[in-house]
TrEMBL record:
GO molecular function: DNA binding; DNA-binding transcription factor activity
Keywords assigned: Coiled coil, DNA-binding
Name of the protein this chain belongs to: Putative transcriptional regulator, MerR family
Stretches of the chain forming a coiled coil according to its record: 83-110
Phylogenetic placement of the source organism: Bacteria, Bacillati, Bacillota, Clostridia, Eubacteriales
InterPro entries membership: DNA-bd_dom_put_sf (IPR009061), MerR-type_HTH_dom (IPR000551), MerR_fam (IPR047057)
Keyword ATP-binding recorded: no
Gene3D superfamilies: 1.10.1660.10
Chain ranges of the HTH merR-type domain: 1-71
SMART domains the UniProt entry points to: HTH_MERR
Amino acid sequence: MEYTIGEVAKIMNLSVPTLRYYDKEGLLPLLERTERGIRRFNDNDISWLNMIECLKNTGMQIKDIKTFFEGYVEGDSSIEKRYKMFLERKAEAEKRIEILQKSLELINYKCNYYKTALEAGTTDIPELQQACSEHDAPNNHKLFKDVVCKEY
């Protein structure tokens, strides 16, 4: 199936200028054009765009994504290089997930903190002070406890 740039922008939830930028940067080397130069996307291009967005979500820079796609075009001679790249992306994604999980723990803790304070009409209540004990603070970590127990 063929798609216009506007259709792809909607499908991918990307802007048309972003798609043009990806093309200009060489991230869509197999993208076909009409005789008048109009971009015509197909399902394979959508798959490539999904991979671009996936790699971007792990913090990979455009120049490195381009290097990956160049390796893909090279074929089997770059399998090891591409495998190592994905191992690095996996490690980076796991690191980001860990950071987000810790942030979510803090946010959940603060939601409970403020729910209790809202119900009591004040943050100056024993239950909240007790919740900030070493045993109840998320991760049982002093620095985390200091951040959690401050009234933000």
